[in-house]
Amino acid sequence: MNISFFRFVRSGFNGERSVFSYLVYASGELILIALGILLALQVDNWNQSRLDRTREQVLLAEIHDEFLFNKSELIHTIGIFSKVRENCANLVQLISEKPATFDETLLSSYLMGITSAGTADLSKATVDTLKNTSSFQIIRNDELRSTLILWESLLSDYKEREKRAEDFAIERLTPFLSKRIPLPYHLGISDPRVDKAFIEDIEFENLIRGRGRLISTFLNMAEGDNPKLMETIERIIALSGN
Predict the structure, then answer these.
(1) At what angle do helices 202-223 and 19-97 cross, to 10 degrees?
(2) How many Cα atoms sit within 13 Å of 222 on the Cβ side?
């Protein structure tokens, strides 16, 4: 309806004051107001959708970069602790063979190897940001959203296992060795004050086995459990890279 029509209807009011004409006029006004409101809402929704899509692209880039870093960090940590676990197994094997004399070079290498430390600096910063800003709904990919939530749970479990292994080394293994060998171990083992009889001590063997077992618990989560930590990282990288 155009403006001239409403003017015509309004002029009719001055003459006949028709109830019908008034209702037509009022209905037209309401329709115009409703259309204006709907148009404004549509424009607002379009603008919000455009902003959300821009924000989504920024978030996806941040997630992608973060989990590329997580993958690199986890690979590095797996390498370190796989070697520690190997040294634990080698040392237990050496002890079980009960040689008449121990090869000091080999022994010092194993002792240095079982005390190597380092934790994976894995991040969930983007997950925290999404939670704190209530922005999860901006990410349209349902699988990516659910995998990010899974990642938070997996990371918490992994960190707990990793900390347990490192606390064992710091609180039990290192104090045992520090009472018997001066640092650094690769030089201290040849110190004349060192009584190598401790190597055949049952307590020492149990400490080595415990160290290896605890390392296996979080390495198994990184590489062997279902869902695997590494597979989860790789899936997030794939989903956020599109």
Answers:
(1) 150
(2) 26
- Cα–Cα distance for residue pair 241/171, rounded to 1 Å: 42
**Contact between residue 228 and residue 222 where contact means Cβ atoms under 8 Å apart:** yes
Using DSSP's 3-state secondary structure scheme, residue 18 falls into coil
Taking alpha carbons only, the member of 122, 119, 136, 118 closest to residue 68 is: 122
Burial of 81 (0-12, 13-18, 19+ CB in 10 A): buried
- Report residue 137: phi and psi, to 5°: -70, -15
The pLDDT tens digits of the residues spanning 58-115 come to 899 999 999 999 999 999 999 999 999 999 999 998 888 877 677 778 888 888 888 8
In Å, the largest CA–CA distance within the chain is: 126
What value does the mean pLDDT take over residues 181-200?
83
List Cα–Cα distances, 187 to 100, 111, 180, 204, in angstroms.
21, 11, 13, 19
